[in-house]
Amino acid sequence: MQADPQNSSAEVLRNRILSFTFNQTKVIANQTLLCIGTTMGFRIVRIEDCKITSARDKLDGQHFEGGFSCVSSMFSTQLICIVGSPENTHQTPNILYFWDEYHSQLKAEIRFRSTVKNVLMRRDKIVIVLEKIVNHIQTYIYLLNTLKPIASISTIENDYGVGSISTDPEVFVLGTLDTTKGHVRIENFYTNEIKRGHMHDNNIVIMEMNSSGTLAASASELGTVIRVFDTRTLNVMYELRRGTSAARITSIAFSPEGSFLIATSNKSTVHIWNLNLVNNDGYTGMVTRFLPTYFQYTRSYFKLNIQPENRWSFSDLVPPGPVACFTSESVFCVAHLDGNLYTCRINADTATIEKSSSFIDMDEVYRIESK
After folding, report:
1. Quick check: helix, strand or coil at residue 290?
2. Is this model's pTM higher than 0.85 or not?
3. Is the alpha carbon torsion for 37, 40, 42, 46 positive or negative?
4. Which residues have a Cβ under 8 Å from the Cβ of 230 and sit 6 or more positions away?
5. pLDDT tens-digit readout, 125-141
6. pLDDT digits (tens, 9 = 90+) for 307-338
7. Buried (b) or exposed (e) across 183-199, using 16+ Cβ within 10 A?
8. 68 CB-contact burial (10 Å; exposed 0-12 / middle 13-18 / buried 19+)
9. Where is the signal peptide (predicted)?
């Protein structure tokens, strides 16, 4: 939809996606939500039926001009964490806000001296990842019920907000960057064990865990290889090749029983690996010791190309590509920048898109009369 050039007294705004992420504990479809930050606020979508459960980005309702660069929901509760985008003049990027959806108001806030890049939530704790190092600290852990800080971690600067936690209530494992480029730090807060080690030569842009925190997967800025490692030993279990050309890995997810791993990228691709068919050393056999490095990595079992239905111009604030999560061992969902949620199924010899549903109208236009 194009703006009317004769209506020069009206400012035209389009609602655009700034961020999106899935919240998940264990895989329960009706409790899995897609949390979306937009240029006009935020919205929450239940992925079971693609139902919008909250839309605080409507001009004729409660909205926040400038929007939010980070939105995270406390599972199926009414508590939502939000971080303002650089364009938001009221909710600034260095403050973590707690939104009470039931009462439709901001409930609390935590202020920092650096931009908040990521928020990781459990039922009892919240982890805040900052972009810059402040007093040698870059990651903070708070009790969720009191918002009291209980721990802090020193890392290198974290432009991508890298961090991951176990969601199983019986264990608390936190993965962060370490103080050296390409190194990871894994801490088990129940056993007080800390592991540090080298995982990539380049800067790490993403790290995700399975629900129990026993396995983690990471990728670097190059984006050609994903390493899956045991968090208790840091031994690399699998080395998975996405491709030979550089790409930004935008999400990684383990299936509930650990049979599959999926990764999305800014190339609008979804790669799926069947980990049951990969040798524990990540290679396809002893003969690979005589082959070039490229042949030593396990290639994806399936690959999907999900190109957006429409394209538009956007700023650098927009996420670089789709994100995915599993809803069962063989079914996963992909949220894309065109505002569609794709439900996909892994079959015996392929992966297919079963349906798509819209969670935001990319052609929606707001007209604000100039004062």
Report:
1. helix
2. yes
3. negative
4. 214, 215, 237
5. 999 999 988 777 889 99
6. 765 554 344 556 688 999 999 999 999 999 88
7. bbbbbbbeeeeebebeb
8. buried
9. none
Contact 84, 71 (CB under 8 A): no
In this structure, the strands spanning 17-23 and 33-38 are antiparallel
Where does residue 264 fall: left (phi above 0), alpha (psi -120 to 50 degrees), or beta otherwise? beta
How crowded is the C-beta side of 8, counted as CA atoms within 13 Å?
A: 1
Find, among 197, 193, 152, the residue nearest to 173 by Cα: 193
Instruction: Please give the structure tokens belonging to residue 253.
Output: 């997810």
Q: Would you call 346 exposed, middle or buried from its count of C-beta atoms within 10 A (0-12, 13-18, 19+)?
A: buried
Eight-state DSSP code of residue 215: E
Instruction: Return the biggest CA–CA distance within the chain.
Output: 73
Phi and psi, residue 331, nearest 5°: -120, 135
